[in-house]
Structures are given as C-alpha cells and as structure tokens.
Amino acid sequence: MANVLNFMIVPTYTTKTLAIMDTSVYDTDPPTVVNPTVEIKVPGFNAVYLPFTVEQINTFNSTDLGLTTAGDEIALPDGIYCIKYTTDPVLTNFVEKSIIRVDKLQEKFDNAFMTLDIMECDDALKKQAIVSLNTIYFYLQGSIASANNCAYVEAAKLYGQANKMLDRFLASHCGCSGNNYLVNFQ
C-alpha cells in the first residue's frame, strides 16, 4: 500500500496563523517519510517551501510564509491560498488544494456583530440590523462555497460584496434604518 496524502485546514481563531493538519494514511507506522514539505502560495506573494511534520498540526505565521521578519508578524491576507503537500522531492506523491481564507473579514463581521446593541434599538431597527448581518453572512458563506468549488472569480465578487456591505454597516453605527425589514419582511 502506498501513502495516501491528505491534509485539512484547522481553525486557529486568529488572523495571524494558518494551521494545516496532516490527515494522510501512511503505509507504515510510524510513517517512514524522508522529506515531507509543504508549498504555500499566499495571495499576492511568491510560493514558499517549508518542512512539514507528518501526523501533526503544522502552524505557520507571516514570518514562516516569508511576508515579514521575526517579531513583526502581521495578519495573513484573505484570499485564495494554494497548498501542496509532498513526501518526495520529485513530486510523484503529493496532494494539492486551493482554499479561501476569510479570517480577516470574519473578524470584521464579528466586530460588527458585537457593536449591535440589541437592547438600544427599537424593534424595527433590531430586525433591520439582524437582516443586514444575515445578508452579509450569506455573501461571506457564498464566497467560501464558490472557492470550494473552484469558482474563484465568483468567490472574489462575493467576498468584495460582503466587505462593502460590512463597511456600510459599520459606518452607520447601529447599522439599521428599519426600511429593509419593513419593506421586505412584513
């Protein structure tokens, strides 16, 4: 039996790290892998090749990915990441996936949600704010679904729309006028 390579992205609940868990099935226990590496292409940057620890969660930050120097770590950019895991230098056994990272937009959404003081708005305003946030969340999830199905242009459009709507929501303080709910849902 040959090694069947696979990995998955694990949530880290921070915008500053990317975690990749090895979910491969190896032909020996413990695995006898000579040179496991992961290639990560961050949107807008060159690919980096990093050592990969088998049967573990491998966590990378902006310094590991070549975006910053040690001690100056930043939030990783949102966008399409291309990740390739291989166990041999001639790339005869590898797995490659593209994922969309939306952690910065999700953090922005969480902050918008936390600004919504449901006790302060009247009933129509509360409902409008909830409708607005649900709509934004719908676009965010649509972006993820599109990227998962290799529709990267659509994913970018939906991400941009969610971001624009979120900016408008945050700029309006309460994020609600009551009109959308009254017009569309009563």
Number of domains: 2
How many E strands?
Answer: 7
Q: What oligomerization state is this entry in?
A: single chain
Report the top-level CATH class of the largest domain.
Mainly Beta
Structural class: alpha+beta
In DSSP terms, counting alpha (H) and pi (I) runs of 4 or more, how many helices?
4
Helix content: 25-40%
Give the N-to-C terminal Cα separation: 61 Å
Q: Rough shape?
A: elongated
Named at the architecture level, the CATH assignment of the largest domain is Sandwich
Rg for CA atoms: 21 Å
| Topology order in helix (H) and strand (E) letters | EEEEEEEHHHH
Mean pLDDT: 87
List the helices and strands and how they pair.
Layout: E1 7-10, E2 17-22, E3 37-41, E4 48-51, E5 57-61, E6 79-86, E7 94-101, H1 103-115, H2 123-148, H3 152-171, H4 179-185
Antiparallel strand pairs: 1-2, 2-5, 3-4, 3-6, 6-7
Helix pairs in contact: 1-2, 1-3, 2-3, 2-4
